[in-house]
Request: fold
Amino acid sequence: MLKALVFDLDGVLTDTAELHYLAWKRLSDELGLDFDREQNEALKGVGRLDSFEIILKNNGKTHAYTQPQKEECAARKNEYYKELIKTLTKDDVLPGIPELLAEAREKELKTAVASVSRNAPEVLERLELTKYFDTVADASKVKNSKPDPEIFLTCAEQLGVAPENCIGIEDSQAGIEGILSAGMYAVGINVTVTGRTPDLCLCSTEELKLDMLLENFMRRE
Reply:
């Protein structure tokens, strides 16, 4: 029986991918590192430090920075990102999401956000979505980034719901891997599949309708 919906933040509730790209691009330019939009795709769903490691690896500079230097650079990127998210408003919520969240509340389904961003609570506030969620699991509550299932299992535990009674909604391959490894039903939004396939593939958040999700979830059972 479906009891909860677990949402990724970036690319599902709102599209902050461009803001992350601009912040990483600013940092990379300052450090003289090559970074473009294509490389940015590999950072979706990946934590801050791990993302910086990917950028360094792409530039052949994995060992060019000490761990404290890497942490300082990742923190600097986060400050750039925090400047950018101040521009977010409720108008930046992706299509179909407000209606889905309202209906989930009416049906008494529990809801959670599983985001590697420590800024998730502030983003939800600026989007005026905080009231729709029972809990948020972010990088401050987990040790392992997606594709590890820890963040999704943490959401289920905080909701008091078994993972098999949850639908996880993601826009990245790393997120889909995490959802499936957690034992949840996986819905992919415009995911470029390079590994395990979502249980349900959709092209946009506009296609997210609760009745349709319930129907497909029950069909799996």
